[in-house]
């Protein structure tokens, strides 16, 4: 075979009007193995969805030097080829069936590197990931496995798969990062349970990362630790809804604001108290149409139990909806109670609800029905549990039908 390792030829100029004639150039070799010229090979559109190869032997090219991006041919025994231009990709698309080998940074072709062009002329790029850490050697008591340093720059994120019949040490699985491969810091750490295949994901920071795993106090019989790098983001590890959630499960931190739409169409943010409690306030209950609202509001200084009577109309049904209470701060607090008084003389009191307050306000929703018989009534009682006299608020809402 002729030695053509140093022979190069420029790509044919791209011309939209001559697009079917721009294509691959092959060397002409005489009987002694010497290159005598070059011949273009083109795929000519037959108009029926097929192409025919056409060879023109009249072209002779003397130039042997080219710029980066020009097409040239080299001896395949040297496994080299120059990167192709966009125009050349379009011209060679039909001939090469959408695949063209390209050179890597050292001008070496490896068998898995291609330019892939679809029917629209768009170049498809396939990035590669791989296994970067892989060990199945069991660890002794409190023994630590430390992987070699892995470059972080080509990695979008990593997926760690680990399992053993023995638990790890506390925070025994550590993802370490480094800027120089010498000084390391732990980016994330987990405690791995026994007999449970766990999967963790992370986005490495710094120039290098490594994986450290420290076993617990009992020697392992089996151990699997494998780390794969991914060039693109993929869905993090998942859990079945019914699975028990552990503090050591892999998780993503999400910080968000809860926003709700009001009846007028505007949006406002939900708020929390200084103690971290979400503030949820129900709208005041409204009496249904065709009913009579019953509303009692009380606010005064109370020294001892003070009763307020809420009558129930004879033959009507009283439906309770809401009891509210509030009081200034005191030593022992205050109490607001709602009773049913079936005999109308306080001889028998049936408790409906009670609220204890101290420097705060509270509401409780209730839904009880009481039919008036001429004597039955409700009793709203305010009690100061601290002695002395303090201001207590109480309110009742309901309706009669």
Q: Nutshell version of this structure?
A:
By secondary structure, the protein is mostly beta strands. It contains one helix and 26 strands. Strand 2 and strand 3 form a beta hairpin.
Shape label: elongated
Identify low-pLDDT runs.
Answer: 1-15, 18-23, 56-89, 92-114
Largest sheet composition: 5 strands, antiparallel
What structural class is derived from the secondary structure elements?
mainly beta
The CA-CA distance between the termini, in Å, is 107 Å
Rg, Å, rounded:
41 Å
> How much helix, percentage-wise, in residues?
under 10%
Give the number of domains. Answer: 3
Average pLDDT, all residues: 77
Please tally the β strands and state the result.
26
Which band does the percent of strand residues land in?
35-45%
The string of secondary-structure elements, in order, is EEEHEEEEEEEEEEEEEEEEEEEEEEE
Structure description:
The protein has 401 residues and is mainly beta. The chain folds into three domains: 16-124, no CATH class; 130-230, Sandwich (Jelly Rolls); 292-400, Jelly Rolls (Sandwich). It has one helix and 26 strands. The protein has one helix at 86-92, and strands at 24-29, 35-45, 51-55, 99-101, 114-117, 123-124, 130-135, 144-146, 150-151, 157-164, 168-178, 185-190, 198-202, 208-215, 223-230, 259-261, 267-269, 292-302, 306-311, 317-327, 334-341, 350-357, 361-365, 369-371, 377-384, 390-400. The termini are far apart.
């Amino acid at each position: 075979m002729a030695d053509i390792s140093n022979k190069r030829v420029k790509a044919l100029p791209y011309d939209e009007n001559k697009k079917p004639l721009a294509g691959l150039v092959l060397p002409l070799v005489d009987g002694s193995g010497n290159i005598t010229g070059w011949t273009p090979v083109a795929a000519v559109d037959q108009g029926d969805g097929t192409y025919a190869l056409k060879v023109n032997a009249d072209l002779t090219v003397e130039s042997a030097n080219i710029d980066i991006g020009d097409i040239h041919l080299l001896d395949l025994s040297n496994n080299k080829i120059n990167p192709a231009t966009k125009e050349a990709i379009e011209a060679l698309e039909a001939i090469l069936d959408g695949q063209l080998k390209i050179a890597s940074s050292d001008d070496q072709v490896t068998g898995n590197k291609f330019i892939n062009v679809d029917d629209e002329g768009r170049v498809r790029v396939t990035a590669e990931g791989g296994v970067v850490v892989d060990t199945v050697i069991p660890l002794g008591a409190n023994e630590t496995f430390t992987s070699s340093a892995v470059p972080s720059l080509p990695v979008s994120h990593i997926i760690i798969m680990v399992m053993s019949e023995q638990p790890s040490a506390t925070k025994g699985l550590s993802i370490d990062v480094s800027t120089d491969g010498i000084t390391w810091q732990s980016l994330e750490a987990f405690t791995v349970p026994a007999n449970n295949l766990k999967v963790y994901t992370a986005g490495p920071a710094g120039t290098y990362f490594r994986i450290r795993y420290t076993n617990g106090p009992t020697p392992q019989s089996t151990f699997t630790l494998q780390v794969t790098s991914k060039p693109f983001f993929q869905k993090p590890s998942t859990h079945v809804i019914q699975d028990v959630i552990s503090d050591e499960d892999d998780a993503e931190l999400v910080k968000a604001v809860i926003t709700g739409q009001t009846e007028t169409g505007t949006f406002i943010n939900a708020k929390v108290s200084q103690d971290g409690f979400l503030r949820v306030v129900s709208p005041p209950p409204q009496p249904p149409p065709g009913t009579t609202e019953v509303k009692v509001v009380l606010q005064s200084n109370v020294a001892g139990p003070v009763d307020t009577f809420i009558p129930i109309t004879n033959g009507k049904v009283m439906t309770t909806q809401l009891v509210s209470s509030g009081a200034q701060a005191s030593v022992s607090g205050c109490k607001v109670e709602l009773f049913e008084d079936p005999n109308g003389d306080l001889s028998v009191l049936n408790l409906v609800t009670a609220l204890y307050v101290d420097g705060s306000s509270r509401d409780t929703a209730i839904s009880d029905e009481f039919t008036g018989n001429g004597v039955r009534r409700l009793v709203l009682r305010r009690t100061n549990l601290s002695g002395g006299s303090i201001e207590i608020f109480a309110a009742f809402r309901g309706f009669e039908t």
